[in-house]
Amino acid sequence: MSEIKDEIILRGLKEHNLRNVDLNIPKEKIIVFTGLSGSGKSSVVFDTLARESRRQMILNYPHYVRYQMPRYERPDADLMQNLSPVVVVEQRLIGGNSRSTVGTYMDINPLIRLLFSRIGKPSIGTASDFLSQSSFGRCPECSGFGEVIAPDLNKMIDYDKSLRDYAVKFKPLSPSGWQGNWMMTCGLFDPDKPIKDYPEEKRRLLLYGPPEGEKVNAPFHTKNGPQKHDWDGLLPRFTRLYINRDISKLKGVTQDDVIAVSTRSLCPTCQGSGLNPKVLACRINGLNIAAYDQLELTELLEELKKIKDPLGEYIALQAIPHIKQLVEMGLGYLSLSRKMGTLSGGEAQRVKIARHLGSSLNNITYIFDEPSAGLHPEEVDLLIQMLKRIKAQHNTVIVIEHNLSVIKVADEIIEMGPGAGVNGGEVVYQGKLQGLKDSPTATALNHKLKINKNPRDIKDYFTINRVSNNNLKNISVNIPKNVLVSMCGVSGSGKSSLMLEAFTKRYPETIMVGQGGIGISNRSTLATYMGIMDDIRAIFSKETGQPAGLFSFNTSGACSICKGKGVLTPDVAFADPVTIPCEACGGTRYSDEALSYRYQDKNIVEILDLTIDEAIHYFKIPKIIKRVQTLKDVGLGYLTLGQTTSSLSGGETQRLKLASHLQKEGQIYLLDEPSLGLHTEDNEKLLDVFQNLVNRGNSVIIIEHNLNFIAASDWVIELGPGGGKQGGQIILEGTPEEMLHAETLTAKWLKDGVR
Ligand code: ADP
Ligand code: ADP
Ligand code: ZN
Ligand code: ZN
């Protein structure tokens, strides 16, 4: 009996492509799910295990609370037992514009505020008075935003133009508004003379108004004759009417109009902290709370250790372990104030994990989705230590991973397969590393790196001169054209700063394949995403004489019962949500009329059910064949034309994006970690795609940690030596073969891989 409790029991799993999968997952172990992209890993881990655990957790709450919580549908499975609460650590986090900082995300800031409120000298009040959003704590000048907006004459005035020609680019002060007309007719200013030709004194009067203490009359003409009016100067007027005032109540001016002729700058009163001078006067050992926020974490740790007051020491001791955690993960150079959205992928990944390590809960199932993403092989070792620590705190660690180092440390490996999509959905192996054979993962583990011994000749370069955005140290670099280039280096070394910012700014024609998703509309399918659907509808229309819209489930072809959704979701209060296939159309989303027409013996639904592999032979139209072939090239031959893009696995999405970019004939392709979500075997296919692109004369540059890609490149550029401040330099440029004689971190791992 007690033995059963130590395992999560799953029987008859059928979500997506799963074929009646049975699994026993041991608790308090590290379990790695691996297998080709699309084999069914997420369907087991996220769509069955995590969803059922969350669903059952919610069942523990009373109805009236449950009503406000997310509702989860019961996964398609016969039995799911012995689950524990799950914590999912997602792969990519938090949108780039998120306001959260390292300090808020790690929950360290409340402790720091408490500390200042108790032992800061002079202390001013309660912990919440140290918040820039509080009525006491906010800076009076910038209202807590930390930034002020100041008018910028160079943006507001076109000195080559006259007033009548709209020299003033801010609409309410231009001839479009009464104020602009007043300026032209008051007799002080020549409305037809370019501003640059005004004598110095006139120009100063126009822009800044009369000298202090003087008054200048600028009559305002009404139908009752001129009225006396003082001229105050464009700049003072603009500041008084549009900056020092809540303009949201004015008509015809928006915040954006004002910002367009202004510059934002750091608030001079609070230096960007958003805090009141009284709050900033409160110090501990000479430092105020804004300084604490800006300190590098290593320095912050030292400051906290200096605190000897017993109450202060007690509070500091609460914060220290969290900060230590970050420092130990190599993030000591960050500060509490750093915005989460500006962290590099690998940095963000580690902050997320650190947050969970600080937790004292146990008997949790932690689920990590490819935690090695964005990490250099060297950093993967750190990651593994952390996973082991989470397990040691009596938790179950489930990891979806392709990284071989992580696979090697698993207590138990579960490989899904044998293929992807309809060819997958089974457990092909469960057990220890030693027993793994005859599978894609076994092959990958035995695979030795193949160094490219015949790199292509380099004839020309893209040149980037002296860049210093983010951590880059004023570097210049030549990136070879028309070959395959890998850009590598530890996380935070500056790869994205160099390529995604500096390079794309200089070479805007670059086709960027980044990491974002592709939208979650469940009306978008492979066929619509690739632009094939329009051609298919056109064929049907031509063949049948019916309007093309009849062959779309988004318009007139939609089933009238489900409105083209294919499913119905009856909303029963308090009950679990259920989705049932629409009986009227049998889930096809189409109306009977649309289905009654055929092209080459198939109706529209039968065509959308074709796999990519089948579609290549079915269609005779070159334009369609070309697009379908691109999908096959990136290894998606097993998907159907009609599969929704929202249902694709991460690795499939990544490749679909690539395919859609491949059909635009570009010349420079830049890819951010294309191996993400892909198994070693998938990577080989992708590499072929890149080689073909280069053979056709394109330049392909990839940001990658994966050694298979690096070894196969024609040229490698490594940034480093460390992350953050310690990075930002080019530490290696050369062929993979030359790397075998180099001493950098990546070179070390490459040498290891060929042994
Ligand atoms: P993995 O995590 O191994 O990459 P997934 O479990 O995400 O794979 O997906 C397994 C297969 O099931 C993929 O081919 C995917 O396209 C397919 N799939 C996922 N969701 C749906 C769905 N709602 N409808 C149809 N197919 C789906
Ligand atoms: P990589 O791509 O090599 O992982 P990045 O180029 O993303 O590294 O980041 C290089 C360094 O610059 C990192 O320490 C990162 O935190 C920092 N950085 C990136 N963006 C910003 C930003 N907007 N503000 C401040 N620092 C940044
Ligand atoms: Zn301020
Ligand atoms: Zn229907």
From TrEMBL:
Its main subcellular localisation, reduced to a broad class, is: cytoplasm
Q: Does the keyword Cytoplasm apply?
A: yes
Enumerate the InterPro entries for this protein.
ABC_transporter-like_ATP-bd, P-loop_NTPase, UvrA_DNA-bd
Membrane-spanning parts:
none
The segment(s) forming the ABC transporter domain are: 2-443, 456-746
Keywords, sorted A to Z: ATP-binding, Cytoplasm, DNA damage, DNA excision, DNA repair, DNA-binding, Excision nuclease, Metal-binding, Nucleotide-binding, Repeat, Zinc, Zinc-finger
Q: Which SUPFAM superfamilies match?
A: P-loop containing nucleoside triphosphate hydrolases (SSF52540)
- Top-level division of the source organism's lineage: Bacteria
Compartment(s) where it occurs, according to its Swiss-Prot or TrEMBL record: Cytoplasm
The entry's family comment says: Belongs to the ABC transporter superfamily. UvrA family.
Protein name listed in UniProt: UvrABC system protein A
Q: Which organism is it from?
A: Peribacillus huizhouensis
